[in-house]
Design goal:
Blueprint: H1 12-39, H2 43-89, H3 91-104, H4 109-131, H5 143-167, H6 170-196, H7 200-228
């Protein structure tokens, strides 16, 4: 009977990309809004900057994640191709290698050899990819999935500051973006920690702290350029 049980690492690929994308979308777009708003007295440049930041950021996250995970996928394919060739050319050596792995994990030599034989007979490449190379369905590279998750998460993260620019008067937009972003960062950090099985408070504080630093630095840059102009 198949073992059905939920594990966090079953979703680690898309979860990592989604959390990174949402964080980046929220922090970068909010920082951009604060920086431009500090240097401008008109709404249009702030709105254009926020919209451009959302589009460019989402596409950049998708492209970067796709390239990165594709490199991982290429490495996995190369490792599997090498294992396939070795299984075809020297099956006895590969069987001995698998046996040694199981002995190292605590099985007796006789039992390790028996297990290695049976797994090799059923799916030799699957056994070596899992136990020698450390690959599994949960961690295997999926470039397109990672790219789409990153882009979608970035858009979700960037949407709140953009909506605030649209619906809040320019005089209040900086305060509104700062407060809402800080609140969302705390929630997002806590959620990420919860999904990853880590304590809520440290995760929330960590994300919020670096978000505040990014927004403060960008607002300072906008203020300086606004004064110079």
């Amino acid at each position: 009977m198949r073992h059905l049980e939920w594990h966090r690492n079953d979703h680690i690929g898309w979860l990592r990309a989604a959390v990174l994308g949402a964080n980046d979308g929220l922090i970068s777009t909010s920082s951009l809004v604060l920086g431009v708003a500090a240097a401008q007295t008109k709404l249009e440049p702030v709105l254009i900057a926020a919209t451009a930041g959302l589009v460019a950021g989402a596409l950049s996250m998708a492209a970067g994640e796709y390239v990165s995970v594709s490199s991982q996928a290429d490495t996995e394919k190369a490792d599997l191709a090498r294992e396939t060739a070795e299984l075809a050319s020297k099956p006895e050596a590969e069987l001995a290698e698998l046996t040694a792995i199981y002995i190292e994990r605590g099985l007796s030599a006789q039992l390790a050899f028996q297990v290695a034989q049976e797994l090799t007979g059923k799916d030799a490449l699957g056994a070596h990819s899992r136990d020698e190379l450390g690959m599994s369905q949960a961690t295997i590279a999926r470039p397109l999935q990672a790219a789409m998750a990153s882009a979608a998460a970035f858009i979700v993260g960037a949407a709140p500051p953009l909506l605030l620019v649209i619906f809040v008067p320019l005089a209040s937009v900086s305060i509104a973006v700062s407060v809402v972003t800080l609140l969302l960062l705390v929630i997002l950090g806590g959620l990420a920690a919860r999904l990853g099985g880590a304590p809520l408070l440290p995760g929330a504080i960590r994300v919020a702290f670096w978000g505040v630093v990014a927004m403060a630095c960008t607002a300072l840059v906008g203020r300086v350029f606004g004064i110079v102009a």
